[in-house]
Fold this sequence. Notes:
Blueprint lengths: L12 H15 L4 E4 L7 H4 L4 E4 L8 H4 L9 H12 L3 H5 L2 E5 L3 H10 L5 E4 L8 H22 L5 H22 L11 H9 L7 H20 L10 E7 L6 H10 L2 E7 L17 H10 L10 H13 L4 E7 L3 H17 L4 E6 L6 H14 L1
Parallel strand pairs: 1-2, 1-3, 3-4, 5-6, 5-7, 7-8
Pfam families: HGD-D
Cofactor: [4Fe-4S] cluster
GO molecular function: hydro-lyase activity
Amino acid sequence: MTKLPANFEEFSENKKQSFIDIKNLKDSGHSIVGIFCAYTPVEVMDAVGAISVSLCGTDEAPIPSAEAHLPRNLCPLVKSSYGHALDDSCPYFYFSDLIIGETTCDGKKKMYELLGKIKTTHVMQLPNDYESAASLELWKSELDSLVDFIEAKLDVSITDDDLRRAIYARNKFRDSLKSFHELGRLIPPPISGYEMLQVLNGAGFSPDKLAQARNIERFKEHILDEYDMGLSSIPADRKRILITGSPIGGATEKIISTIEEFGGTVVCFETCGGIKSVYENVREDIHPVDALAEKYLGIPCSCMHNNKKRFELLDELVDDYSVDGVIEVVLQSCHTYNIESYSVKRFVESEKEVPYLHLETDYSSVDSGQLQTRISAFLEML
């Protein structure tokens, strides 16, 4: 029987419940694997019934603890993630048997070295060019290494058929998430962007991805039934906003809520936790390791050199979601997204002829007033 952390009673009721939920899964025999990024091929863990959990790095509370080891002028996501690990304040890190990292940015790369002193951590070496044949071969070898690591640490065997079954189930789950995102294409949308994020972030943890997919589809049908009865609370004249940029996490409340408070509605999230990672499925007609390597290397993150696929995706999404304005949210010290924002601005304004706003922020509330001023002015201009 696993134990709860010594500081359990200090947490909010929601966080206590998260600890209990993940504890129950672990007590029922499931291994827990903590991950940080959309580049992690979760099908490898799915193949052996392990639960992949996204580790908490979305609030400012643990950042002071992290700054005892990390520089202050570092991305808040990295500091928050590491601070939670130090404080035992993330239920998912606390109960994780293993941690899987990836070399997407310099901050996370070095943070994983410190995490490895707390828990067993495996770091995948992610190539930075998804068009190179050599990069694809390197990424395949990294997938093979991940399979070897999981087999050794969890004392399991992973066959090609195990991976194929996991790919099939995870594709169905991705389809359900993508379909749920596509509610934002309706005019007006049936739910707000903030509500959509709450649903997607609260999808829960289950070893049965097919059951999860069915649950999401049922919930979508329920929303559409109410929508068809005219029960949508979103006015049709609200300006339709696409969010792009860094994983927003702890900036969700002050960005999304402010947009929707001042007359906009967020209809699409072109972010790591949004539609970007579920837009394409894993192929089921080739060797499973080849298919996983192809899918995950092709995710269009700003850590990639010549990130053309991001602009192709933005091109489709701006049209498909009838977008009135694009807001790029970049976390402070997130250098890859900050540099790429120049190209995104030019593309959105010149090629798509859609207004664009760049916001740089962190997880604190210090800049809330300034953000409200800039967001409200942008929405008025649309």
